Structures are given as C-alpha cells and as structure tokens.
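Most newcomers find our protein records easier to grasp once they have seen one. Sequence and backbone structure share a record, each on its own labelled line. Nothing more is needed to start thinking about how sequence determines fold. As an example, a complete record with its sequence and its structure tokens follows.
=====
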Amino acid sequence: MEYTKKLAAFCSAVSYDSLPPETVAMAKLCVLDYVANVYGSLELDAVAGVIAYVRSLGTQGRISVLGCGFKTDLHNAVFINGTTAEAIEAQDGVRFGGNHPGTAVIPAALGVAEDLNLNGRRIIEAIVAGYEAANRPAAAMHPWHTLSGFLPTGTCGTFGAAAAAGRLKGFSVETMASAMGNAAYVLPISTAENLMGGFTIKIVQGGQAASAGLMASGLAASGVTGAPFIIEGSDLNGGFAKITSAAAPKLERLVEGLGEHYSILDVYFKPYTACRHTHGAAQASLEIQAEYSIKPDDIEKIDVYTYGIAKLAVGKAVTRHSSFVSAQFSIPYVVAVCLSDGELAARQLTERRMADPDLIDLSNRVEVHADDLLEKAYPDKTSSRVEITLKDGSKRSKQVDIPKGDPRDPMEAADIVKKVKRFSGDRNQQTIDTICSRILDLENITDIREITELI
C-alpha cells in the first residue's frame, strides 16, 4: 500500500470547511498552549543562549521571533520559535506516539503564514494537516522508535512541519509526497541520548524539526524530489520507519481512520513544566500539599510508586550541578519542588532554583518504585502514588491515575488561558488577554500578524 502517498494526499486536501468543530477548537487550543510555552521558556538561560547565537548571525527578515521583540529570516525565526515551544517541557503531546507535535508544526505554520500574510482558517488547516503528518508516523513506530534511540518530536515532527508548510502553499499530492520524502532525508536524528543525559541541546529538537520541515517543503516546491513512499520504504529496505525502529512498524496506523478521526484530538496538554511521566507524581504532591501544608523539614522520606517506563525514564535523582533538562525528567526533583514551592512552572526549572541545597536535599529523600498493579494499568492509565512519611511517623498519601490535561480529564480553554498568564511573567496583561481572545477566534483573523506581532 502507498502509505506515505495516502497520508500526503490527505494532508494536501485538508479544508477548514470540512473539519469537525471539535477539531477546529482543538487546533486553536494547541496554538494557545504553544504561546504559553514560548513565554515560559524565555525564563531559561539556555534559551537565551540560543537566541543570542541566532541574533549574532546578523540575518534580516520579516518573521517574528515570538516574545523577543525582533524579526529575522524565516528559517532562523522558526528555529527559535520551535526551541522556545519545546524548552520548558510543558508542550502538548500524544501518548501513543511519544511525540510533541506542536513544537515543530505550529512554528512552521505561523512562520509561513506570516511570510505569506495568510489568514486564520488557512493556519488551522495547516496545523491539522501537520499534526496528522507528525502523529501518524510516530504512532506507527511507538514505542520502538524511542527505544531505538530517537526522539519522535524531532524526527516525526519534521514530517509535520513539512506538511503544514505544504498545505499553506497549496501543494498538490505529488509535491506534498515529495516534501515528505525530502523531510525524511533532512530531518534531525534527534538522539535520545542527549535527553537522557540531561544535555541542554535537547531543547532545540522542535526548532530543528520546524526548520528542517520548511527546508523539505521549500525544496519540493522548487522541484527537488523525494521518495513518495519514504515512510514505508521499498524493496531497497531504506524506508524511514524500518531503519529507525527496532521492531516492525505498524504501518496501517499511517492511514487507519484517516479523515474519520483526527489525531489532534488525542493531544494532551501539560499543566506542569516537566516530562509527562512525572505528572501523576507532581499532581499528587501538589494535592497533598494543598490539603496538609506540609513543611519540607517535617518530611522523613517520600516514596513514589509508578509504572515501569516512568521509573526507567524519570526515576533518576539530580544534584545541584544537574541541568534543568535533568530536572524536567526527574520524579525526585519534581516531587521535591512541588512540595517546597506549591507549584511547578517556569521558575521551578531555572538554574537559580535548582541551586538551592535544601531543595536538592529534599529530592534525595524521594525514592521511586515500580509498582506491579500500576504497571498492569499502563498504558491505559499513567498512575503514580505518592506516600509521604513525616518525622512523627504519620503518613500522607495520594494516587493520581489520569493526570490533568489528558483528553479524559482535559484542560479547557480557560485552563490554558490561565497557563498563558501564569507563564507570561510581567508582560502587559491587557495585551495577553487580547492575544488569547484572538487565538480563540483564530478562524476570523484575516492576517496572522494581528497575533504574532502582539506576542
């Protein structure tokens, strides 16, 4: 079956007029959540380093670097805008793909739309198409793509960025398929080793995917051809899904229910600035603290029980010298900072906050355990139980089975507006209100600069 070409055909034909209302609504929420992440990420020193380097290149252009007050060329702008979407680790995601499509798709869509002065309905079409192109290859290889050492946000996100740009440019099926073929050739390897090792280069995977996707689509528009069967491959055994997955991919997921179920509806949003596998423990800790107002000095130890992949991926401890990336992927740190600060937002991930020896000491009192019953409930439930033993011998316990933001316990528009405001720092709140209201009315925006130039 021509899986890639069928996916390309669908992406090239996505039309606002035929999209279900709930799909349109979700696309707008994804843009709103994206803005929250951009603002939050600007708190991080590593992000400041990325922005300073790109500015030092001296490139000129007309595309907004969001939240930063300057413009540059298209590729460098979307590189920064994808990096800021990713860095704070509060980006949207899809559980059954392990990817975060918005960090690549949305900056690419907004950048091209700004370049071409396009309206909100066109952007919604592009985002829906881009999420399909990013999510379906990720789902076809999940979890074996990640277990093979790749991060699907970077790899599969490039397909999404290319498809979003191609939809905005009105690509034919053939040109869209070429764009996907090109994407598979220029996409980042996006090595999981850098994430698991806590190296801060991890934050650029969304930006690199967005920029590479634009390159793939631009080359396709210029007549440069890519294999229109690139995801499934041919008898040459060089297909993307085969060479980047330790087990046979489930290629039927590339087209299963295509046009009947939109994968953007499977997206979860994050209330907290950390890996989704930490969120059950974070939510449980915050609920305990809200109920009992526990002082960190009164805690003897904390036991966190969770499912196996969570213990493996985010069960490790941190030190005062660890990076914020390590902290984002550490249940001990997340639990400690939630109990200490009563929140988990941008400030909790800064190097300044991580330098607190009392916070690190509390995190060292956290032990993470794999629980057989919680493992049996996974992946339907991503459960975590936090048990706090106080120095007087008493205990406080809370279990969360479906963390907030999951489609089964969703963050609604009002929740995400609050997230934007919480992450926006000391920016003018009247302007923030205008940005949020315009995004929620995106289908009626005639030129995306009405939004991007405010951000």
User: Anything to note?
Assistant: The two ends are 44 Å apart (CA to CA). The chain has a mean pLDDT of 97. The chain has two domains: 3-271+422-452, 276-400.
